[in-house]
Amino acid sequence: MTTMSxxxxxxxxxxxxxxxxxxxxxxYGFLKLSSxxxxxxxxxxxxxxxxxxxxxxxxxxxxxxxxxxxKESKSTYNLSDMFDVVAEDLLTLNKNLLSIxxxxxxxxxxxxxxxxxxxxxxxxPALVFLVSRATAExxxxxxxxxEHRRLAEIIEMIHTASLIHDDVLDESDTRRGKKxxxxxxxxxxxxxxxxxxxxxSSWYMANLENIQVIKLISQVIKDFASGEIRQAxxxxxxxxxLDEYLTKSYYKTASLIAASTKGAAIFSGVHSDIIEQMNQxxxxxxxxxxxxxxxxxxxxxxxxxxxxxxxxLAKGNLTAPVIFALEGEPELRGIIxxxxxxxxxxxxxxxxxxxxGGIERARELAREKADRAFENLRxxxxxxxxxxxxxxxSYNLERIE
Length: 401
What we know:
Layout: E1 2-5, E2 11-14, E3 23-27, E4 30-34, H1 79-82, H2 87-101, H3 106-116, H4 123-139, H5 146-170, E5 174-175, E6 178-179, H6 181-185, H7 187-206, H8 211-232, H9 242-268, H10 272-299, H11 302-305, H12 311-314, H13 320-326, H14 330-337, H15 345-355, H16 358-376, H17 384-398
Antiparallel strand pairs: 1-2, 3-4, 5-6
Family: Belongs to the FPP/GGPP synthase family.
InterPro entries: Isoprenoid_synthase_dom_sf, Polyprenyl_synt, Polyprenyl_synt_CS
GO biological process, one term: isoprenoid biosynthetic process
């Protein structure tokens, strides 16, 4: 048993955790992993490409922790095509990310190139631009403000920083088909690179001089840490209920998405009722995405997932399908609480979740959140931007149909 003490004065008992031989610490209020193994501390500096390498992010490769890897050729919706209405905004964003990272430190530049250059759908900044343009029509703005654009850049920087730290925590070797930052440069550099991006985004956030948005984004960074703590302290806990799962999912996923949509509406200067509807849209969309990802952990093949089926369950992270299944299958509790010590027990648990209706009930929950997201958009005037916001909800549900 390993107990990890945080600077905030909270002792977190990572029960039954034998996988990690390292210590955790907070930097800039975010939970990270700093390895004690001497071989990890070595830093490898790889030659960096020209800055233009960053500019290929739109529509290239996979998304981040929201798994958007379903076969788009067979899909009614394609994110790359949907984002055409804000393609120029996203291109400008990719260029501006270069200046935010800076080129003074070749290690940092190379680390940033690794994750930005790996592609990604840029879903969160796209949401900023879509809501910004949809709400700008209401307030009579002819063009997006500098604050809108800076918000999108800050959101993407925070998201990227969280990915770097998540990969360290999860000991992930690859992301979007490329080696992770900590695999290439070591854990110390990865943690510091993530810290730098958090700090840099915070500096730009302060310069927005909008206290409402500053508080909003600051809360997101706090939520990230809270979500990691909640997850780490409840591994293999079969008493975790649905409300606790949704709270954790909000902290880890939906909080940043809701901040993206709410912040965009704030900078458009629309009425508070519309701002709150955009906040709720991001909240419901984010939760729906997370629930769908948790379903796919059971229904997709290892090739589609890029990891073994049931990986979250194997780590003791109990998601919606498992929580629903536990309500009617007492045998499942015993298997989970044994931490899959017997050969074939994980496969048996996955089979129980599939057979007892846990996945279908999770589908219903994802649809419920999606329906609420559709409702949240009704306050917007009909436009191509509102249409894409609706299509994003449908796209997510299509992944489990």
